[in-house]
Amino acid sequence: MSALPGVGPKRARDLEKLGVDTIADFLTLWPRRHLDRTTVTPLWQVAPGGPWTVRGRVESQQEHYLGPRKSYLRVRIGDGSGHLEATFFHATWLKRQLAPGTEVMLSGKVELFRHRLTMTHPEVEVLDGGRPPRLGLIPVYPLAGDLKQRFVQDLAEQTVRHWVMQVAEPLPAWLREREALPERPWAVLHQHFPETPDDLEQSRRRLVFDEFLRMSLAVLWLHRPQESASAPAFHADKTPLIASVLDRLPFALTAGQQEAWDDIARDLAKPRPMARLLQGDVGSGKTVLAVLTMAAAVGNGYQAALMAPTELLAEQHGTLLSQWLEPLGIPVVMVTGRGKDAEGLERLANGDPLVAVGTHALVSDTTRFGRLGVVVVDEQHRFGVRQRAQLGEKGLFPHMLVMTATPIPRTLALTVYGDLEVSQIRGLPPGRKPIQTVHLPMSERRSAYLKVMEAVKQGHQAYVICPLVEESEEGQGRAATMLAEGMRQIPGWRVGLVHGRMAPSEKAAVMEQFRRAELDVLVGTTILEVGVDVPNATVMVIEEADRFGLAQLHQLRGRVGRGPAPSSCYLLADPATQEGQARLEAMVRTQDGLELAEEDLALRGPGEVLGMRQHGVAGFQLANPLKDLVLLERARRVAREILAQDPELASEDCQGLRQWVFEALEAALPSHVLH
Ligand code: ADP
Ligand code: MG
Questions:
Q1: Domains of the chain, start order
Q2: Ligand 1 center to residue 272 CA distance, Å?
Q3: What contacts 630, CB < 8 A, 6 or more positions away?
Q4: Which residue's CA is the closest to the ligand 1 atom numbered 25?
Q5: Cα distance between residue 334 and residue 314, in whole Å
Q6: 195 near 137, Cβ under 8 Å?
Q7: What's the rounded Cα separation, in Å, for the pair 34 and 150?
Q8: How close is the Cα of 257 to the center of ligand 1, in Å?
Q9: Between 565 and 408, residue with greater pLDDT
Q10: Strand boundaries in 3-78, DSSP class E
Q11: How far apart are CA 201 and CA 656, in angstroms?
Q12: Are 510 and 499 in contact (CB under 8 A)?
């Protein structure tokens, strides 16, 4: 990028942070949104509401002080036809830019404040000497480092217009016409510089279709060899071994669990690899199904692997599985960072029937399986194409069960995972009481900790989750350490601490103490987010809860309410944004994972919710996989059609597509798999 005028090494580095290394990357640096400046309204026509774009001259400005270091700026503009005031909080730096006499353009909503038309924090463009005002739909780009919006806009203006004709059109003309899609270069250009909202929508349709098509082709192409792959057929239903596993459970399966198990057992009995997604809300009891599925493999003389998202969870699963399975003669081998069990690894390589538990290193590193029959993936809905290809590369086509608490629509699951069936565990185990959820301002922090004290007195346990510090586990770990230090001063509390920077063995030891109720309070970071299961813990306190995402809060809260005693969750926060406030309100209002997922989607957009933005093959940038389901289905159908006609994408017409698919796959796979 530094070859372009105005882009020095510093700006080139900042652009790299946005994923822009080349001009081609820059062409697909999509605006986050567009400012509507299609019409400038004379001030006399402006009424409360909007948004409006207005133009005028600064007539006066005034700084108002709210406290020693708090002030706001009020600016009055006029255009000869009327007046308007604009208010800016914490923005003293605007004082100079908006000096009286300056000509400005403002965009924003208008309210009536003390009988005066007012915009609060409008978008401002200073129209100083000679710069023509920007009108129309103005792209607003993501920024990084010291990049300024105006600079990126100018760069786009020069670069995109100049290079867009070089953008390839991989879709054959007949297909584009049949699907009524605009050409890709047109779509790229109009995603940056639409002339009308309709341009933007047409452009988006094409680009979203492309994202889906590319992914569908890649997934279908990859799964070709597996269509014919065979897997061992297992007797799973009503075998003596499964009966004894069920006998040893301290509870009976719920109806929802039984239904899901029926689905799984039916799949396992077929000589084709199962590919099933098991969805069930936090606490619905998915682990038991993993246990049954793995026991079925071992009962049939095969090996089973359980992959957990964190070592902490792998250890917990290991402990549980040893308790439940070893008495039945099923050995459990841990494959985690905590010292590998050399003898266990050898037995794995030999093909002895047993269960291996670890993180996803289980499939990706050098662990060898002699006779792998089943892989269960816990809480990693992102597990997909790449890992399956890695297994396939080792000649392994096991039955696969992916478990997740995140609701994923079926079509999307199909696209991300290939041919995947979906089971849903409906309902929760009996006797669960709703988790009382309370939002408290930071000033009432004390009352949350009094609840912790009460619970500890009654022999229950509590979690305290530390605020996210700059989204880094390191910072959060520091905060956790400090909080734990403070709490250790409280007489009568046995306080433990876990964070991601601790050695795996240390983490495991603390968790074990907590599980055995040798600790009353566990202070931790988001590594406690998924899977941790200690039914005696009944209180959770989340510090600065507004910093967490909704899905994360829901998962965290799911650590309590796992036993018969009533549980509560305290969200401590003085939310700084409306969105933060909305998330807390949603948490207080409902405990339904599906409802929260929908709310999350509305608040944040889909890419982040599914953790799929910028994620290899699964990378959607513009697509909203939940809202754009119709386009997704169309793209998937087209992908099937194309591959049916030309399985190798060898024809002249398909060269662009072939290139595309390989690029997509290369981003996700080690290149030797492809060649
Ligand atoms: P998740 O779906 O979140 O992974 P878990 O498998 O950890 O849920 O189960 C949550 C808790 O519910 C555990 O303590 C588990 O022992 C318990 N549990 C699971 N199934 C049942 C059941 N059928 N009846 C009663 N308790 C159950
Ligand atoms: Mg779980």
A1: 39-134 (2.40.50.140), 227-424 (3.40.50.300), 435-604 (3.40.50.300)
A2: 29
A3: none
A4: 429
A5: 8
A6: yes
A7: 13
A8: 10
A9: 565
A10: 33-37, 49-67, 70-78
A11: 24
A12: no
284 C-beta closer than 6 A to ligand 1 = yes
**What SS3 state is found at 612?**
coil
Whose CA is closest to atom 15 on ligand 1? 285
Ligand 1 geometric centre to CA of 283 (Å): 6
Q: Which amino acid is at 257?
A: Q
Structure tokens at 108: 């924003």
Q: Residue 125 in contact with residue 116, Cβ under 8 Å?
A: no
Neighbours of 328 (CB within 10 A): 14
Q: What is the DSSP letter of 619?
A: -
For ligand 1, atom 26: residue with the closest CA = 429
Nearest to 168 by CA among 151, 150, 181, 186: 186
Please, which residues have CB within 8 angstroms of residue 414's CB and are 6 or more apart in sequence? Answer: 420, 636
With 0-12 / 13-18 / 19 or more C-beta atoms within 10 angstroms meaning exposed / middle / buried, residue 528 is: buried
CA distance 152 to 164: 16
**Contacts of 497 by beta carbon, 8 Å cutoff, 6+ apart:** 480, 481, 484, 510, 522, 523, 524
Query: Could you read off the pLDDT of 456-485 as tens digits, one per residue?
Result: 999 999 999 998 776 667 778 788 898 899
Determine the atom of ligand 1 nearest the C-alpha atom of 284: 2
Q: What are phi and psi of 32, to 5 degrees?
A: -70, -35
Q: The tokens of 84 are what?
A: 């308007």
pLDDT of 615 > 70? The answer is no
**And the tokens for 119?**
């915009």
Burial 136-146 (b: 16+ CB within 10 A, else e): ebbbebeeeee
Q: Is the CB of 533 under 6 A from ligand 1?
A: yes
Angle between helices 255-268 and 287-299 (to 10 degrees): 30
Report the residue count for the chain. Answer: 675
- For residue 543, report the distance from its CA to the centre of ligand 1, in Å: 26
The 461-465 sheet, strands edge to edge: 436-440, 568-572, 537-542, 461-465, 521-524, 495-498
Point out the ligand nearest to the CA of residue 306.
Answer: 2
Ligand 1 midpoint to CA 423 (Å): 17
pLDDT digits (tens, 9 = 90+) for 157-203: 999 999 999 998 999 898 899 999 999 999 999 999 999 989 999 99
Q: What's the CA gap between 635 and 425, in Å, rounded?
A: 29
Record the pTM: 0.67
Relative to the alpha carbon of 562, which ligand is closest?
A: 1
